[in-house]
């Protein structure tokens, strides 16, 4: 019997209908459960893609040292992918990220380097490039690596099209590296250019793990504004409230940015009729428990 490997079960995640949060509506509200990937997030897809494609080009070889700046999910996914393929993985992340994320990376054998919360992701990205310049390893650069959106063009987009039988009218995704929204948009627009692509970013002053409102100098180079029909701002509070409601009213245990995606999908649902709205639920809620966000009142 030809049994699957852990790598082969990345993707093909469920697309489920929201039953209560949408209320009385003519729309179909769907959540793509990326937490069902082996390392627990949508980032499993680009992590494996970036390593596998670099290997195929001969850019890296098992045993090499890889470096990446991460706020968490990509780091966990890369740690898993490096373990599968046999690489040393150095991950650089802001110190204020949740303990669960740090412990998960370490569990896969990755080595962590922390920058201060004030330095943030910009500081982590700068340090990764400085380490590469010193010859300490190879930066995969999820923010500028075309193999990131390629993973979603090849897998996430086609899955959504197939699972909705081509009925999708709106796609909603939080934006961090922007790989998910770039790849899915590129695919879905080839199928139906009228599909609306909605990207989400934190409003000024809000801190939502995994997504960013990038300064111009740090805007991911894989991002193409022309591929996004609408950008919506999210508050940290509404994202956290919806995250808790998603668990309590739908039984979907997910992270803060996923709460934001659902909150945005519900706003869009109030504007349209007879639509099929797909939102990315990018990870699981268990990697946020130590932050206390699930214990807070609404």
Task: Give an overview in words.
The protein is α/β, with parallel strands linked by helices and 298 residues long. It has two domains: 6-36 and 156-288, Rossmann fold; 43-139, Rossmann fold, CATH 3.40.50.1100. It has eight helices and ten strands. The chain has helices at 44-57, 73-85, 99-107, 120-133, 147-163, 179-191, 236-250, 256-269, and strands at 15-17, 28-33, 65-69, 88-94, 111-115, 138-139, 170-174, 196-202, 230-234, 276-281. The strands form two sheets. The protein has a six-stranded mixed sheet with strand order 1-2-10-7-8-9, with helices on both faces. Helix 2 (73-85) links the parallel strand 3 and strand 4. Helix 1 packs across helix 2 and helix 2 runs parallel beside helix 3.
Shape: globular
Strand order of the largest sheet: 1-2-10-7-8-9
Percent range of helical residues: 25-40%
Average pLDDT for all residues: 94
Layout: helices, strands, pairs:
Layout: E1 15-17, E2 28-33, H1 44-57, E3 65-69, H2 73-85, E4 88-94, H3 99-107, E5 111-115, H4 120-133, E6 138-139, H5 147-163, E7 170-174, H6 179-191, E8 196-202, E9 230-234, H7 236-250, H8 256-269, E10 276-281
